[in-house]
Amino acid sequence: MEFVAAEWKDLFVASAGASAALAGLVFVAVSINLDRILALEGVTNLALSTLALLIGVLITSLFGLIPNQGAGSLGTELLIWSTILMVFVAMQGWRSMSAETDQNRYASRLIVPSFGTIPGVIGGILLLTGDASGMDWVFAGMVGAIIAAVMNAWILLVEILR
What we know:
Elements: H1 9-32, H2 34-39, H3 43-64, H4 71-96, H5 104-114, H6 118-128, H7 134-157
Helix pairs in contact: 1-3, 1-7, 3-4, 3-7, 4-5, 4-6, 5-7, 6-7
């Protein structure tokens, strides 16, 4: 299967717009509950991780919209970007964990966000090697990032008040 960037253009346009809008909504959620977020240990890191996941989808989409690039170029860009994002989100997740955090939160703070970062790294590697199926991994990472971010946004907007 040959990589054809034009086939993915509509997806990248849609995901860029959607992720930017969702990032704006997270900013609103944080501003509504800012006092509570600042008072709880690690929650600011959760908010930053959430924004990073959504901005990650936006930047991934922008890389995908660069005209006239092949799979190797896109793969290199996405591999570098996704690796940076993966490390940053993992660091924020780790920092959001406190000594009092129970085991139930490990999944929401560390595991779920990885579904939004690790597939991008895999996709970048596959594209770099010329395997067009890397785009399926990139797509999976974008979906995973949006799902993880929406779950975290719910925590920041609703659950934090409980």
